[in-house]
Amino acid sequence: xxxxLASTDALAQLAEENAALIDNALDLLVVLDPAGRILRANxxxxxxxxxxxxxxxxxxxxxxxxxxxxxxALTIEHSLHREHPERANVRMRLRHRDxxxxxxxxxxxxxxxxxxxxxxxxxxxxxxxxxxxxxRSEAALNSMLESIGDAFFAIDSGWRLxxxxxxxxxxxxxxxAAAIGHPLLEIAPDLRHSSSLPRYQRAMETRQPDAFExxxxxxxxxxxxxxYPNGDGISVYFHEITAKREAxxxxxxxxxxxxxxxxxxGDAIMIVDSKMDIVSVNDRACARFGYRxxxxxxxQAADVCLGREQARELLPGLRAGHSQxxxxxxxxxxxxxxxxxxxxxRFDDDGEExxxxxxxxxxxxxxxxxxxxxxxxxxxxxxxxxxxxxxxxGRDGALEDANPAxxxxxxxPREMLLALRLEQLFVSFPWASLQDPDGPTAVQGMEAVLRHxxxxxxxxxxxxxxxxxxxxxxxxxxxxxxxxxGRKAAESRLQExxxxxxxTGLPNxxxxxxxxxxxxxxxxxxxxIAVMFLDLDRFKEVNDSFGHEMGDVLLCExxxxxxxxxxxxxxxxxxxxxxxxxxxxxxxxxxxxxxIADKLLEVLTAPVTVGGIDVxxxxxxxxxxxxxxxxxxxxxxxxxxTAMYRAKGAGRNRYRFFEAEMTVATQxxxxxxxxxxxxxxxxxxxxxxxxxxxLADMALYGMEALIRWNHPERGxxxxxxxIGIAEETGLIVAIGRWVLxxxxxxxxxxxxxxxxxxxxxxxxxxxxxxxxxxxxxVREVLARTGLPPGCLELELTESALIEDIERTASMLRExxxxxxxxxxxxxxxxxxxxxxxxxxxxDVLKLDRSFVQQHDEDVSTLGFVKAFVxxxxxxxxxxxxxxxxxxxxxxxxxxxxxxxxxxxxxxRPMPLDDLRGVIEAHGAPRLQNS
Length: 930
Description:
This is EAL domain-containing protein. Keywords: Coiled coil. This protein is of the alpha+beta class. It folds into 6 domains: 102 residues, PAS domain (Beta-Lactamase), CATH 3.30.450; 110 residues, 2-Layer Sandwich (Beta-Lactamase); 97 residues, 2-Layer Sandwich (Beta-Lactamase); 102 residues, 2-Layer Sandwich (Beta-Lactamase); 159 residues, Alpha-Beta Plaits, CATH 3.30.70.270; 247 residues, TIM Barrel. The chain has 36 helices and 38 strands. The strands form 7 sheets. The protein has an 8-stranded mixed β-barrel, surrounded by 4 helices. A 6-stranded antiparallel sheet has the order 12-11-16-15-14-13. A 6-stranded antiparallel sheet has the order 18-17-22-21-20-19. The termini are far apart.
């Protein structure tokens, strides 16, 4: 019994203690039935909610839960009953009895055994307020860190990022919030190579703040960094200063440029303060005055000045903003002085007054002025002594100065000259045109006419300089003139000589063109003009028979006779040689022209006594009519010339009117000439070769190189159609040079291929032979191709030989010294004879085909050829017969002991490939080293 009582007492005491514990708990403790009604609440209800515990008993818990959380409370209640019997740290807003809201942290547990719900609630209102205040503080701090101009980040002692604003994140290209907690070098790996990292490490170790500027390579920008130790880490602030650095650099450069300009100025520059102490000078000042910069600084401005000590007098004007320009003497360190022009101005620098003095050394200027005065004196002396007339005229043309030469030239004494005006001194002078504001400032080589005091005129050549004001008005005219009266007379004579034939006195080609053009311009509509080209038929015979003097007599007589029969309105001219031109108005067209031509032929067929012998010149006349045949001067001359050649071809001593068909041949020839000019560059030429046979053994001796033109449109053009054109135009020089090089090149290749000697014969024109460097050209071709000189034979025409005998003989001797052979082509058709040949080092005579093929019953061809060959052999010359076309001719040539022959009977000209077959068939002398 006693044990039971003891246990009961213990339990009662425990219950009492538990009840006391519950009632004295600071947290609200509530027991709820399954329906959510409050069964019991502890005393904390009074302190926390303002309710007495028994006031809450029987009420539903929603009575103290804020209405906004009723649904949430219901949800928690259902969860406790069904899923989770325990919930902790549920933030619930409960209503205080006085209406206030109390924020509680609620823990709830459902006990199915007891059928009860146990709630514990703790007031966290102040705690929440503190937390919210902390959050607001952190937000304000974060906002401040985000809004500051600098990028900011903080790291702990483990180099992990504890904070970074987004500016720092943007700088390295990451999201700042996501980077928190990561190692710094993981977020910004480029720091490993930056000089910033050692500075961070030192600040971390020494716990000392740091500030520096660094160039961030990844973004190519300069940044300014400030590092502050905090806690166990460091905080870093940084911002970009590229613009600042560039501005500072630009400022430094500007200062350097200013200093350089200051020092490189051509004048000495000093800066003086308000006490007249020198505070700065440039290098030019040091060099001119002889002081070092440190010596200059601190000196008084008066130390280098002579005179003008009262500089204070200048201050009012300087302070009013007016620069002062002074001229004074300056003193150097060595005691020497120099004249100077000083420009002084005032300026302020941070409220302090300074004066800038620009000092220009006038030593050179004064020397130049002195030299100018001396030069003017010398100029005056030169003007007085010059043989050219000199004048100076004012704006109105009145003479203001003149030299003795002008007095002598004009016949006036100086006093009278200076009383004249230009228009009184000159008969002809363009003074009015020179006064044009847009006129020239100088005249050179102007011809004027001076009026001599005695009345006659003097031609002068005037060179002048015109000085004008800003508006272009003449201020003065300075001129020099020389007497050219004698020269003008000479020019008149030269003009006569330039426009007239010196032998006959007739107009020449130049004057003829002018007068014919005047006649064409003046010809009325429906009128006609005849242009007649005359060529004397027998002038060459007279010239050759009686000499050039008698030929000149004949030409003068012809000119006199032509003058007698033409009208004053007509024109007669001599073009040169025996060619004359008559141009006449012909109202009745061709009929009138024919009558004039008949008169001309009549007077020209009358005998003329030359050298005591009567001769008849005769003439061939070609007539072109304007405007029927041609409408320009040039075409009239051309068509008349064409008609003249037709008259000459028709038997001479007659006239022919131009006909359209006459131009066909001329046009064909001109077309060939146009095509011929680019033919060489286009590679249209090729060489054919005609074999030359040794008549003693009928073996191949060599070949003659013959040019062929493969015209792209006309096909193969015969040489006789284009060689003459090439000769006349001079194209033969380039063509001949190509033929020589091509023939030597191909012959050398043949010799190399067959190991046999082959001689090639190349034709040389008179134009080539006339070239001064022809021998050098041959020498160069032989050296370039490697052809032995003895394998080259040059064929020359008779006309080329006798054109300039002395020069030709000299050139042929040079060619012989080269070792080449020389041949005369078509011998017997020109004007040379065997006597001429003794003067030239000729090796071969090529007998023209006309001698080989002649058929004259009175003359034996064999006898003639044999006699010719014997004479040639007597002169140690070989003979080559051309034009061998029959076996009979071949046999009598062999009988006449002719050396070699070529012709269609033996072989036609052929391309190089065909020639190879001939060489293989005939053979040729083997080379000596083969």
